[in-house]
Amino acid sequence: MAKKPLVSIVIPAYNSERYIGRTVTFALATDYPNLEVVVVDDCSTDNTLKVLELFHDKRLRVIRNEKNLGMTGNWNKCVRSARGEYVKLIPADDLVYPDCIKKSLPLLLRHPDIKLVVTGTDLINEKDETIGKYLHWPVRGVFDGRKLAKPSMIFNNFYGNPVCALFRKSDFEDVGGFDECFPYILDFDLWLALSSLGRVAVIKERLNAFRVRTDSNSGHMMGGGENVYTAEHIRLFDKYSAGNIFPLNRFERALAIGTRKVRNVLIGLFIRVKSKKSAK
Length: 280
Prior knowledge:
Layout: E1 7-13, H1 20-28, E2 35-41, H2 48-52, E3 60-64, H3 70-80, E4 86-89, E5 95-96, H4 100-110, E6 114-124, E7 130-134, E8 141-144, H5 145-154, E9 165-168, H6 169-174, H7 186-195, E10 199-211, H8 217-222, H9 226-242, H10 250-279
Parallel strand pairs: 1-2, 1-4, 2-3, 6-10
Antiparallel strand pairs: 4-9, 5-10, 6-7, 6-9, 8-10
Helix pairs in contact: 5-7, 9-10
């Protein structure tokens, strides 16, 4: 029997001592046989590295940056440090469920024109309690990248959170990796870029967990920086319209901006409400 291809789960970490142990434990528990887990620590000043020293698993590699690269730089280094042909990036506080790779990878293996596989995602709080789920549209199936890209730009990121995706390392390099121009929505930018290359597969089943936190990068923004977050989305819309990749006409652009402003306020409210409930 031919050996299964190597899949790399890559985890960018910075001052992640509270959750990194659980994230790595879940990653190593993945029931896919040919796996590596790579953690790239971006010069943490807490006990992140000490937590990682507690693991004794040959599948785990820990890389420590000589200097702080920032979020986008570290995410790029994570993917480029992968030895596998297929990559799943997991932020250091999120979780991947055991059967995620087994259920996602076959689509990429069978269909070279599929450039991105996204799955359903649980939303969890700081106590690992499930507080909701990420909604996709379309809910399942394989689609031309444009079918997801334009409605995602106008109405909502229908792809999902960073933890939801599996992609080829070669396709990541073909689109230039994570764009430094988008420090907060770098994952959304990558999903759009990969969509421009071909098809996207959507699996409805929830195979990952995204942790909702007020002290995370996006949590800080959505907790009170909605205007900055909206401005970054506008730059994203203009990037793909100017390149005529997924062009928006004037009405679509105005609708996209208005929708994003409303959604950012509502998401910020959701984070604040859920965080107060978790603190009780």
